[in-house]
């Protein structure tokens, strides 16, 4: 079996490794435009903030390691033509310009995503930085020690983390977003308001509900003009979001309107023998029971593994995702899974939510701290569709608990009566996950 993997993204790396594990005799060619693989871009803000022990550890694989595993790595190589039906590729060595054609038994599309970069005046200035790949990370790491101010555009997870790390390192920061609150697509208002207060406490200027119109270089920096004002700083950083990088395959496979490639539960596209995974593909979103586009490394890794398990025959079905994620800003941890009441309404899920706040362990302990917990459920069925937690205590595993509940279609009533241990060092007699589920059941029954 001869397999081409287009793109050494998270999904590409795990696809190739799993294919080799399942089929040791398979001939696997991986094509990658860059000279690195498996960069953990979620660590860019942490690196800028000096929280990374070594940048080399921001890669969990290398071309050399993969080659030792028997995978042919074509680095600095771009696939320029693809006939998916015929499994025919043309690829170019970017250093020499030499083009080669080859035929395959299977093709795996793991081309990832591309940063959204609107065609605005001045956006290609050297003082406007992207925050997507290894090169972007290096560029930012070089410039940030020298600057005194920065404008961050986009208040999703990436922009929020960048703004926080720059602010705690004594930079004057302006955070711009088109929506009216930070992390608006990730949190409900009761959580984002807490973060907004922290940004303001740390001197971050919030320019929310504003659309950027242009960039203009000044004598010593950059001016960003929005529909509501003008802001100046030494640099601007883009963290607007991502789109699937699938233009090469347009018209050949079924896609969502945004270009995300649709797959079945075995990661196979509408063309037999062609698979897709990661940021280039759709996911089955369990809270809505529909396919969606949710670019997360966790989704990419699992989908890549499934490609390897299903490359020869349909074997292991995709269990779907809850889009479980987390962020820590100003020592406040936030972890969430599934839908908020607001996002449920946007996706036509008739849902309700409840929020509680209580100390994570008994007050007789010498120390404890509050946890804010939220649960969202479908009104008709009482099926859990989302949960969120915030605290200075580590609440990350609570989101994983609710994620598992969503995947298994548990109701708020079932979660309320699920057995969780009690020990004063770790929690209350009624764990806060149980407490919020009980509050949800009580509210739903009124």
Question: Could you explain how this protein is built, in words?
Answer:
The chain folds into three domains: 2-34 and 50-113 and 242-310, FAD/NAD(P)-binding domain; 128-238, FAD/NAD(P)-binding domain (3-Layer(bba) Sandwich); 325-445, FAD/NAD-linked reductase, C-terminal dimerisation domain (Enolase-like, domain 1), CATH 3.30.390. With 446 residues, the chain is of the alpha/beta class. Helix content is 25%, strand content 28%. It has helices spanning 10-22, 44-48, 63-68, 134-143, 157-168, 189-201, 297-310, 341-346, 396-407, 412-416, 432-445; strands at 2-6, 27-32, 72-75, 77-83, 88-93, 99-103, 106-109, 113-115, 128-129, 149-153, 172-177, 205-208, 212-217, 222-226, 230-233, 235-238, 242-244, 274-276, 283-285, 290-292, 325-329, 332-338, 351-359, 370-378, 384-391.
Quickly give the structural class: alpha/beta
Helix content: 10-25%
Number of domains: 3
> How large is the count of helical segments?
11
CATH superfamily of the largest domain: FAD/NAD(P)-binding domain
Any idea of the CATH topology of the largest domain?
FAD/NAD(P)-binding domain
Q: Tell me about the biggest sheet?
A: 5 strands, parallel
- Estimate the mean pLDDT confidence: 97
In terms of per-residue confidence, which ranges show pLDDT below 50 for 5 or more consecutive residues?
Answer: none
> What is the name of the CATH architecture of the largest domain?
3-Layer(bba) Sandwich
CATH class value of the largest domain:
Alpha Beta
Q: Evaluate the radius of gyration.
A: 23 Å
First and last CA, distance: 60 Å
Strand content: 25-35%
Organism: Fructobacillus papyriferae
Protein name: FAD-dependent oxidoreductase
Keywords: FAD, Flavoprotein, Oxidation, Oxidoreductase, Redox-active center
Family: Belongs to the class-III pyridine nucleotide-disulfide oxidoreductase family.
């Amino acid at each position: 079996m001869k397999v081409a993997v287009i793109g050494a993204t998270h999904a590409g790396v795990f696809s190739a490794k799993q294919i080799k594990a399942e089929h040791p005799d398979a001939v696997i060619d991986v094509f990658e435009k860059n000279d690195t693989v498996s960069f953990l871009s979620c660590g860019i803000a942490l690196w800028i903030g000096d929280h990374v022990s070594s940048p080399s550890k921001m890669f969990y694989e290398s071309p050399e390691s993969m080659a030792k595993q028997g995978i042919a790595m074509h680095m600095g190589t771009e696939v320029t033509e693809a006939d998916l039906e015929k499994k025919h590729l043309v690829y170019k060595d970017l250093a020499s310009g030499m083009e080669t054609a080859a035929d395959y038994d299977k093709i795996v599309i793991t081309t990832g995503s591309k940063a959204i970069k609107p065609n605005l005046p001045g956006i290609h200035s050297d003082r406007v930085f992207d925050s997507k790949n290894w090169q972007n990370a290096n560029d930012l790491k070089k410039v940030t020690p020298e600057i005194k101010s920065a404008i961050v555009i986009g208040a999703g997870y990436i922009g929020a983390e960048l703004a926080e790390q720059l602010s705690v390192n004594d930079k004057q920061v302006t955070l711009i977003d088109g929506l009216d609150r930070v992390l608006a697509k990730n949190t409900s208002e009761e959580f984002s308001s807490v973060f907004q207060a922290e940004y303001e406490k740390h001197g971050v200027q919030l320019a929310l509900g504003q659309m950027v119109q242009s960039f203009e270089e000044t004598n010593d920096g950059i001016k960003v003009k929005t529909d509501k004002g003008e802001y100046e700083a030494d640099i601007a950083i883009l963290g607007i979001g991502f789109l699937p990088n699938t233009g090469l395959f347009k018209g050949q496979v079924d896609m969502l309107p945004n270009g995300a490639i649709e797959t079945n539960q075995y990661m196979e596209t509408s063309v037999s023998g062609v698979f897709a995974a990661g940021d280039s593909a759709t996911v089955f979103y369990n809270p809505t029971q529909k396919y969606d586009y949710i670019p997360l490394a966790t989704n990419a890794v699992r989908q890549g593994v499934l490609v390897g398990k299903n490359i020869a025959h349909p074997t292991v079905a995709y269990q779907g995702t809850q889009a479980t994620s987390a962020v820590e800003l100003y020592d406040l941890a936030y972890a969430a899974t599934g839908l908020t009441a607001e996002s449920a309404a946007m996706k036509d899920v008739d849902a309700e939510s409840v929020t509680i706040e209580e100390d994570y362990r008994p007050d007789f302990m010498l120390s404890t701290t509050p946890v804010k917990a939220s649960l969202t459920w479908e009104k008709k069925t009482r099926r859990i569709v989302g949960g969120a937690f915030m605290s200075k205590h580590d609440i990350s595993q609570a989101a994983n608990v609710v994620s598992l509940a969503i995947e298994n279609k548990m109701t708020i009533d079932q979660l309320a009566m699920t057995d969780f241990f009690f020990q004063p060092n770790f929690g209350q007699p009624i764990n806060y996950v149980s407490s919020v589920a009980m509050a949800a059941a009580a509210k739903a029954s009124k």
